[in-house]
Design goal:
The structure is a single chain. The chain folds into 2 domains: about 120 residues, Quinolinate phosphoribosyl transferase, N-terminal domain (Aldehyde Oxidoreductase, domain 3); about 150 residues, Aldolase class I (TIM Barrel, Alpha-Beta Barrel). α1 crosses α3, α8 runs parallel beside α9 and α9 packs parallel to α10. The radius of gyration is 23 Å and the shape is elongated. The strands form 4 sheets. It has a 4-stranded antiparallel sheet with strand order 3-5-1-13, with helices on one face. Strands 8-9-10-11 form a 4-stranded parallel sheet. By secondary structure, it is of the alpha/beta class.
Length: about 280
């Protein structure tokens, strides 16, 4: 995978951590000494952010001598990045690079864990991760879920047709079929996704021509009942549970008949620990 943010954005990360120089390194007088730095996984992880970490080190004046690509599955103790340079340059990049890899690998690992759990249970369902990432981190968050094997549910409001109940508040129910037909004419290459909260809503909007029904906070049992009701009416629509989908219940949703899963859970996963060791060069 490539670096997914600009040098300017990475430079701002460095400047945030070192706004007026590295007081400790400078006061100790060690900045000019030749140094090496090795980053390794403390525990098993799906790696993400190594390319950005490497670029941070380069922008700080260091030289990267080895870098494992994002999406790699690492065992505990495996080296993911090595670098050399002055102690000042490596210390400047150290904590920003480490923290970025830890957070992104947490997201990637959580997505990978859901997909692995599904696979072990005999299911091959796509996992679509929402845009509910921390604001300002979209590019990095999307890279992380993709590194874990998931796909982006939608990258932003400009990309997809997703009709929420919050949209339908402003449309009379009698006019809804015509408005949905209007959406199709305005964006004929897009699938029409509609979020629903009840089985009755699901059936009505499937009859209105939805391609995908996003089942908000449906339990696996409710999803199964919805699937049976849709099929009994001869309606052809994909069903995707959303809201509360985690590694703990992913298989239950798959068994209930989900066509794919929608989740924000990976964005809130704990970071994966990265160990950093410095040595004299």
């Amino acid at each position: 995978m490539r670096v997914c943010v600009s040098d300017e954005a990475l430079a701002k990360m460095l400047a945030e951590d070192v706004p007026h120089g590295d007081l400790t390194t400078e006061a100790l007088g060690i900045g000019d000494q030749a140094a090496r730095m090795i980053m390794s996984a403390r525990h098993a992880m799906c790696l993400c952010g190594s390319e950005e970490a490497a670029r941070l080190i380069e922008l700080a004046g260091g030289e990267v001598t080895g870098c494992v690509a994002s999406s790699a599955r690492l065992a505990g103790g495996e080296v993911l990045l090595s670098a050399r340079g002055s102690a000042a340059s490596l210390h400047r990049a150290w904590k920003t690079a480490q923290t970025l890899v830890e957070y992104l690998s947490g997201i990637a690992s959580a997505a990978a864990d859901i997909l692995q759990t599904l696979k072990q249970a005999g299911f091959d369902l796509p996992l679509a991760c929402t845009r509910k990432n921390f604001p300002g981190t979209r590019a990095l968050s999307v890279k992380a879920v993709q590194a874990g094997g998931a796909v982006a549910h939608r990258l932003g409001l400009s990309e997809t047709l997703l009709v929420f109940p919050d949209h339908r508040v402003f449309v009379d129910n009698a006019a809804l079929p015509a408005r949905l037909a209007q959406l199709r004419r305005r964006a004929p290459e897009k699938k029409l996704v509609i979020e629903v909260a009840t089985i009755d809503e699901a059936l009505h909007l499937a009859e209105c021509g939805a391609d995908v029904l996003q089942l908000e906070r449906f339990s696996p049992e409710e999803l199964q009942a919805c699937k049976e009701a849709v099929q009994s009416r001869g309606l052809h629509v994909l069903l995707a549970p959303a809201g509360g989908v985690t590694v703990q219940n992913a298989v239950a949703y798959a068994r209930a008949g989900a066509d794919f899963l929608v989740s924000s859970a990976p964005y809130f996963a704990p970071p994966r620990d990265v160990k950093v060791i410095f040595s004299r060069n």
